[in-house]
Write a structure and sequence with these properties.
With 237 residues, the chain is an all-alpha fold. The chain has one domain. 80% of the residues lie in helices and 0% in strands. It starts with a helix and ends in a 7-residue tail after the last helix.
Length: 237
């Protein structure tokens, strides 16, 4: 029971952290629109944010670790969806965290250094820095952090939601909320391929924080924990 409560507290804390850094970056850095900006506009603004901006990005990069910790602590709950689904969900959580961290950590490290060099560089050097910046945005940001990371997270949500739905209790409804969030996040991950899903991706920015808080509350609540301790049978598929 303590592990589920700890998993819930971890998810709630992670969600609050996501909301806090997202709000700060939205107000002081034009996030997330800035992710599509050019090196000439983005890098000087990043450096101008100083140590505070850099620290916020560093915190942002660490937050996905909370997903992995919660996934490990809640692994017995995953098993209610079946052993294979449980392992698949754990892989999804780890993949999401690694991919998202790879995408986010470039801002307080690689991009910050590029920004410092960009300010004092000549025209030809700025072109080279811009090319490095664009490549990082494509491979670390768009492909790793956004596409792979969000698909991995949606997989984790999906398996965990199935596990919740196989239980009983007052918080069982969060399983349905999780399935909806998983589906919308999976669709929204393709926003860089088609503009048709951009509204869904925007919706996910709100749903993610809300879902993590609800899921964390469900894990803490006795209504979810008690049924797990009273049933020893594990459904395998």
């Amino acid at each position: 029971m303590k592990t589920f409560r700890l998993a819930g507290i971890t998810l709630i804390s992670t969600s609050v952290g996501f909301i806090a850094v997202f709000s700060y970056l939205a107000a002081h850095f034009g996030y997330p629109e800035v992710l599509r900006g050019t090196a000439a506009n983005v890098l000087p603004a990043l450096v101008a944010g100083g140590p505070t901006m850099r620290a916020v990005w560093a915190i942002y990069a660490v937050l996905p670790a909370g997903v992995v910790m919660a996934a490990i602590l809640a692994f017995p709950l995953f098993r209610r969806a079946g052993e294979r689904m449980a392992r698949l969900g754990l892989v999804g959580a780890v993949t999401a965290a690694v991919a998202m961290t790879a995408g986010l950590v470039r801002w307080p490290t690689r991009n910050y250094v590029l920004g410092q060099r960009f300010i004092d560089a000549g025209a030809s050097e700025r072109e080279r820095i811009a090319a490095i910046f664009d490549a990082g945005n494509l491979y670390l940001g768009t492909i790793a952090g956004e596409f792979i990371g969000e698909l991995g997270l949606s997989l984790w949500f999906f398996t965990l939601s199935l596990a919740i739905l196989r239980g009983v209790g007052a918080w069982r409804w969060t399983g349905y909320a999780g399935l909806f969030t998983a589906a919308s996040m999976a669709v929204g991950a393709f926003r860089n391929l088609t503009s048709w899903v951009e509204p869904i991706a925007a919706l996910n920015n709100s749903l993610l924080g809300i879902w993590l808080i609800l899921l964390g509350a469900a894990l803490v609540a006795i209504g979810i924990v008690r049924p797990l301790s009273s049933r020893s049978r594990i459904v395998r598929i």
